[in-house]
Write a structure and sequence with these properties.
single chain; alpha/beta; six-stranded parallel sheet; 16% strand
Length: 336
């Protein structure tokens, strides 16, 4: 059984597909994960993935590419060469799997399944409908099970990544907490001055603080770290970031990829969660979490990329002291 799993959006979305990928792998001799450029690094971290195909879909992302027949033909050629017996298309609750299913059908894949609100015609062999309010990780597992890909008995269904490397050389010795100030969209980010405030207050409370960020976030991490925290902005690959997060006592992050990566390595999360998407579907999964942010704010469920409310109150009314209290609570409750 050669199986294809499709998840075309972002880093965190691909991590949330991990339990479903493992379920597919338990019933397959070979698993290929087809993902977009933003999710490729996460795909390479997932157990159960034998091959990663990267393709930028014209219906995904903040700035999707134009529809080019040559790109479509090249993808169809790669899919036909894979000789897949079945394909599982995973999407978020607000996305349609049908454009992808059409391409998979044209590629000759014999059995295709997905979660679809829209009538699929002949595009799907298995049409699943998710339960209301289901977390994205659980919804993906449910869809896999509808295809017959049930998890093995010893799989707890939590997020997981391949073992990360030792990162003591980056973080230094002794316990620490991680603060990740960036986010994939401005509406989801805690403001830099609040992040800097939290770093100072955490240090005053006796914590070593490590600040993480991608290559394009060096100015942000430098500002937030000041002279207090270890600044790892632009200094970690996805694998080394997993190692940094794994050894942290707690990770403080907005609703963005590293929050899900923290969950995948088993670290508790203080989640600064803007309600532009529902926390019940997108909060860090399978680890202790304290959710901060006004979940009933006017921006709730808007999926806005830029905050539509002056002053960004849903998150910026959260103070550094609120974060310190949440960190202490998670540390006290964490098993020794």
């Amino acid at each position: 059984m050669r199986s294809l799993v499709v998840r075309l959006d972002s880093f965190g979305d691909v991590l949330l597909a991990g339990p479903a990928v493992r379920a597919v792998a338990a019933h397959s001799t070979h698993v290929t994960l087809l993902c977009g450029p933003r999710g490729a690094d996460a795909a390479r971290l997932l157990p159960g993935v034998d091959e990663v195909l990267v393709w930028e879909a014209p219906w995904e992302g903040f700035d999707p590419p134009p529809v080019r027949p040559a790109d479509i033909d090249a993808l169809l050629g790669r899919l036909r060469a894979g000789a897949y017996d079945s394909a599982l298309v995973l999407t978020s609750f607000h996305q349609s799997p049908l454009p992808t299913a059409l391409l998979l059908r044209l590629a000759g894949i014999g059995r295709i399944g997905a979660d679809s609100t829209d009538h699929p015609g002949r595009l799907l062999d298995v049409r699943h409908r998710r339960l209301p309010g289901r977390h994205e990780a659980r919804a993906a597992l449910d869809t896999a099970a509808a295809m017959g890909f049930t998890p093995p008995p010893n799989d707890d269904g939590r997020l997981r990544v391949l073992p990360p490397p030792d990162t003591g050389g980056l973080t230094g010795h002794g316990p620490y907490v991680v603060l990740h100030p960036g986010a994939s969209a401005p509406a989801r980010a805690w403001s830099p001055h609040r992040c800097a405030e939290a770093v100072t207050l955490l240090a005053d409370a006796g914590h070593r603080v490590v600040v993480t960020g991608g290559p394009g976030e060096r100015d942000l991490t430098r500002r937030v770290s000041g002279d207090t925290a270890v600044d790892l902005g632009g200094r970690t690959s996805p694998r080394t970031l997993a190692g940094v997060l794994r050894l942290a006592d707690v990770v403080i992050s907005a609703n963005t990829g590293p929050a899900h990566l923290a969950a995948a390595v088993g670290t508790p999360v203080v989640s600064l969660f803007a309600p532009v998407v529902p926390a019940e579907r997108w909060a860090p999964y399978g680890v202790p979490v304290i959710l901060l942010g006004d979940q009933s704010a006017p921006c709730a469920d808007t999926r806005a990329l830029t905050c539509p409310v002056p002053g960004h109150p849903c998150l910026d009314e959260v103070t550094g002291q609120d974060v310190v209290r949440a960190v202490h609570k998670l540390i006290q409750e964490r098993p020794s």
